[in-house]
Write a structure and sequence with these properties.
Blueprint (H helix, E strand, L loop, with lengths): L1 E7 L5 E12 L8 E2 L8 H7 L1 H8 L5 E2 L8 E5 L6 H29 L3
Antiparallel strand pairs: 1-2, 2-5, 3-4
Helix pairs in contact: 1-2
């Protein structure tokens, strides 16, 4: 199986890499294929304690939705790092570094917004 990885390098050039991939259990739903609706995030315990009917329906799966990461497939395609050659590993490391930098920038921007900047 091949996996496509795309990102912008530091010169804003689009880099496309097609490498060997493999399937792994979805980290979001732990392979269940379902998850709670986003509206429940962090509130399920309170909702269960407030409403016995909700508790029964919740544990019966009435509110389950397809996992947003794997779309209910229970697995996701990931890069098979062990199958990469040296050049692919170098490029993939660049991709991971780029993704980490973007995540940090988003976190900083969110913190600034929350602090009124």
């Amino acid at each position: 199986m091949l996996v496509n990885v795309t990102w912008l390098n530091e010169d804003a050039d689009e880099i496309k890499l097609e490498v060997s991939g493999k399937f792994e259990v979805c980290p979001h739903c732990q392979g269940r294929g379902i998850s709670d609706p986003d509206a429940f995030s962090g509130n399920v315990d309170q909702m269960i304690s407030d409403d016995p009917d909700f508790k029964e329906q919740y544990y019966a799966g009435h509110y389950d939705v397809a996992c947003p990461l794997c779309n209910g497939q229970r697995v996701i395609a990931v890069v098979d790092v062990d199958a990469l050659n040296n050049e692919e590993k170098k490029l993939y490391k660049e991709h991971l570094t780029n993704m980490a930098e973007l995540k940090n920038m988003r976190s900083e921007n969110l913190a600034e917004i929350m602090n009124g900047a």
